[in-house]
Amino acid sequence: MVVLKGIPSVLSPDLLYVLAKMGHGDELVFADANFPASSVCACGPKEIRADGLKIPQLLEAILKLLPLDTYVPCPAAVMDLVDTDKQKGLSVPVWEIYSNLLNQAGCKSPLEKVERFAFYERAKKSYAVVATGYVFIPPFLFFLFKMSGLFVNKS
Predict the structure, then answer these.
(1) Catalytic residue among 17, 24, 83, 85
(2) Catalytic site residue from 32, 69, 98, 134
(3) pLDDT digits 0-9 by tens, 72-90
C-alpha cells in the first residue's frame, strides 16, 4: 500500500476516488447511521461506507482537500428538525461543530436547513452518500458542495 503525504487517514480510497470524480455543483451527503443510504443510493448516488467514523472527523478531513462552492448562498446544508422536535425546543449542538469546521475552511455562510423529505429527494440527486457510523437522536444529515470555481445529511 502506498501512503500519500498530506491525505488524512480517515479518507478511504473509495472516498478519495469519489472526491476526485466530483465536478462543479456535485453534492456529497454525509449520513448518520440511521439514514436510508442504500435505498437512496438505489436511485443513482454512489454509496461510500464509513462505518465507525463520525461526520465531523470526515468533514474536517475533506475540507482540507475539497474547496467549497463560493457561487451559492449556502454551500452546506443540514436536514432541518421536524416540527415536533422544534416544538420541544430540541437543540442540535453538532450544527455548531459543523459551522466551526466550515468557518475554519473559510466558509462564512450559515448552514441551509432543508425539510426532511426535501432532503431525501435532494440526496437522491447527489453524487455520493457517505454512510457513517454516527448515531443521532434525532438523525442529522449533512451536505457538502464542491467548488465551481468552488462547492452534506443532517447532523
Answers:
(1) 24
(2) 69
(3) 888 999 999 999 989 999 8
69 is catalytic: yes
The rounded percent of the chain whose pLDDT value lies above 90 is: 60
Beta bridge partners of 27: 145
Angle between helices 13-21 and 55-63 (to 10 degrees): 50
Which CATH number goes with the domain that contains 61?
3.40.1650.10
**Containing structural domain, residue 42:** 14-146
Residue 49's contacts (CB-CB under 8 Å, 6 or more residues apart) are 14, 131
Q: Could you tell me if residue 5 is inside a domain?
A: no
- Is 120 considered catalytic here? yes
Active-site option among 26, 32, 80, 120: 120
Angle of helix 55-63 versus helix 93-104 axis, rounded to 10:
10
24 assigned to active site = yes
Number of structural domains, the chain? 1
